[in-house]
Each structure stands twice: as structure tokens, then as C-alpha cells.
Design brief:
Blueprint: E1 12-19, E2 24-41, E3 44-46, E4 49-64, E5 67-68, E6 76-78, E7 81-100, E8 103-121, E9 123-128, E10 131-136, E11 143-154, E12 159-170, E13 173-184
């Protein structure tokens, strides 16, 4: 979230290239992503357990400039696109930790209800030679859920291993992701 003033839009220049079979077609276009997330939570500690109810509000706006390939066979052109989304998230995390042989084992799980109460997606016109097609942007379903679990084992004050699982459940989409990691602090 940008709370201060700035002298102009923050743009990223993106380059692409593809082999058309008769040379490389390349393009350059700009992209911008702005967003804000605020979360309200309360931490209830029950000895070595915790319950953390959470309520969040998120806003995201993304825009890409037009793409015009140069070179190769049948260079591609596409119009710019924008999307805006506002969502409400409500849920809770539960967790418990154990101390075993001076090591901390922490297990937790969370669940969130997601309401995408406002979504706007522009269409994109894609042209290849003399042919063109208009493609409408695709949004998430209005309602959905996020869920996940985590396990963390602190080996010392400076090292830990962890395993995370996150899932997204929407009307026409399911996403599952796992992370296994080792963390060192110094």
C-alpha cells in the first residue's frame, strides 16, 4: 500500500519473445499492479494453543499496456487490459505447540470465507495477421474458501524446518500448493 506521494505511475517494462519458425518475434509492453490489504485479528492464547479470528479487506488493480510484436512470421498484437477486484475475507486460525527436548513443534490450520464483492475485467483484442478475436477477462466466482495447514519444528534459535499447505476453492477452480523449507537466521 502506498501511503506517500509519488511523482508518476510505477510501471514495469516486460519483454517477450517467441520463435515463429521463421525468426524471433519480440515485444515490449508496460504493466502496473497496485493493491491494498488490511486485516483485523485477535489472538486468544489458551496455554499452548491459540485461536485467531481474522477479518480482511483487499483491493487489487492491475493493468497491462498493448503488445505489438516485431519480427518473425505473423507478428501478434493485443490490446491492453485492466482488472479491478475487491474482496472480503473472514475466518480463523487455530494452532498448538509442544516443547520437546528444547525444540518447538508448532501445528496450525486455517480457514477463510472469501467474498469477491466487486470484480471488473476488460476484454482483450488479439490480432494475428488479418484475423482478430476478442477475449473477455475471466474472474473468480463470487464466493469461495481458502484453507491450509502448517507444521514447523524449531531446531534451535537460528534454524527451523517447516511444511505448509494452502488450498483455494472457487466455483470453477481448485488450487493446491505445498511448501517444504528450511530457515536459517543470523
Amino acid at each position: 500500500m502506498d501511503l506517500g506521494g509519488r511523482s508518476g505511475p510505477r510501471l514495469r517494462n516486460i519483454g517477450s519473445s517467441r520463435d515463429t519458425g521463421f525468426g524471433i518475434a519480440g515485444a515490449s509492453y508496460d504493466a502496473r499492479l497496485d493493491g491494498a490489504l488490511t486485516e483485523l485479528s485477535y489472538y486468544w492464547s489458551l496455554e499452548q494453543s491459540r485461536i485467531v479470528p481474522k477479518l480482511g479487506l483487499e483491493y487489487v488493480r492491475a493493468a497491462t499496456g498493448a503488445l505489438h510484436e516485431v519480427g518473425g512470421l505473423d507478428p501478434l498484437m493485443a490490446s491492453g487490459a485492466t482488472l479491478e477486484r475487491s474482496r472480503l475475507l473472514a475466518g480463523a486460525e487455530i494452532g498448538h505447540y509442544w516443547i520437546v527436548d528444547r525444540k518447538v513443534l508448532d501445528l496450525s490450520a486455517y480457514g477463510k470465507f472469501v467474498d469477491n464483492f466487486s470484480q471488473a475485467f476488460s476484454s482483450v483484442v488479439v490480432s494475428l495477421g488479418a484475423q482478430s478475436i476478442t477475449v473477455q477477462g475471466i474472474g473468480e466466482s463470487r464466493y469461495g474458501a481458502d484453507a491450509g495447514a502448517a507444521a514447523s519444528l524449531s531446531l534451535s534459535n537460528t534454524a527451523r524446518v517447516y511444511l505448509n499447505y494452502d488450498a483455494r476453492f472457487r466455483a470453477a477452480l481448485q488450487s493446491h500448493q505445498g511448501t517444504l523449507g528450511i530457515e536459517f537466521k543470523w
